[in-house]
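Action item from last meeting closed. Structure (253 res):
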């Protein structure tokens, strides 16, 4: 459905033969080691936690439409030292160093998208989350996902549908797509899922009134939502960033 709006002669032979066998064995082992390297759904940047722990919490940040994994990774040095920070790159090319999580098709009045593609992308993100949990040995009970714009739309919806694996969501200038709203489980409080929503009142890309209604709708559902709105456009203001850091700190404490 299309709706509006990421080694004597014998002795020598034996010696040479043994040497070759040993070399071949080493090559085979090296090859096995290469094959055994973990694979991930997405190319990504990673900042290890500055405070060492056996199972650190993780924050996975999804960039917006037309951006790349280095964009939100610029936040990493300012984020809580306890966190592992991972920023994946969306899989669809838009141009040099520009990527998208799913397609947007402009009409005369709006941007349209394929709901089935969005839902499949959400499932792919959860595949990546599982890969992160397994290969980076993070705390599976403290997995946070966040994003900006298109990345925010995906993290909000993905978190709502997967609260058994996601502890918290950061939605920076996004929306709640109906494809996700229609599938929110009836579980009271969604396993303690915590959500930080922020939006600019002057946003001309993703209209503020809709996010205002979306936040109110989630609160009515009994979900733990912190909503912060600013007199800004489609961006992340300094005040917005400080509020997000405060929310994250409280979550980790």
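Sequence:
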């Amino acid at each position: 459905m299309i709706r509006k709006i990421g080694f004597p002669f014998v002795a020598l032979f034996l010696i040479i033969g043994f040497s070759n066998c040993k070399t071949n064995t080493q090559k085979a082992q090296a090859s096995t080691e290469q094959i055994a390297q973990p694979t991930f759904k997405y190319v990504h940047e990673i900042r290890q936690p500055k405070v060492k722990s056996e199972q650190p919490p993780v924050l996975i940040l999804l960039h917006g439409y037309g951006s790349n994994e280095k964009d939100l990774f610029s936040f990493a040095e300012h984020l809580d030292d306890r966190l592992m920070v991972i920023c994946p790159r969306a899989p669809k090319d838009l141009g040099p160093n520009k990527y998208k999580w799913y397609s947007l098709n402009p009409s005369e009045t709006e941007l349209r998208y394929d709901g089935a593609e969005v839902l499949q992308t959400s499932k792919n993100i959860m595949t990546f989350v599982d890969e992160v949990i397994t290969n980076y040995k993070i705390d599976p009970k403290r997995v946070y996902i966040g994003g900006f714009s298109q990345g925010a739309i995906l993290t909000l919806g993905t978190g709502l549908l997967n609260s058994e694996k996601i502890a918290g969501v950061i939605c920076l200038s996004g929306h709640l797509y109906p494809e996700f709203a229609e599938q929110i489980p009836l579980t009271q409080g969604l396993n303690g899922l915590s959500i930080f929503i922020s939006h600019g009142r002057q946003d001309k890309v993703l209209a503020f009134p809709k996010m205002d209604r979306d936040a109110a709708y989630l609160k009515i559902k009994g979900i733990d939502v912190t909503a912060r709105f600013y007199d800004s456009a489609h961006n992340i203001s300094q005040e917005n960033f400080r509020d997000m850091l405060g929310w994250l700190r409280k979550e980790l404490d």
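Note appended to the action item: The chain has one domain: 2-6+40-252.
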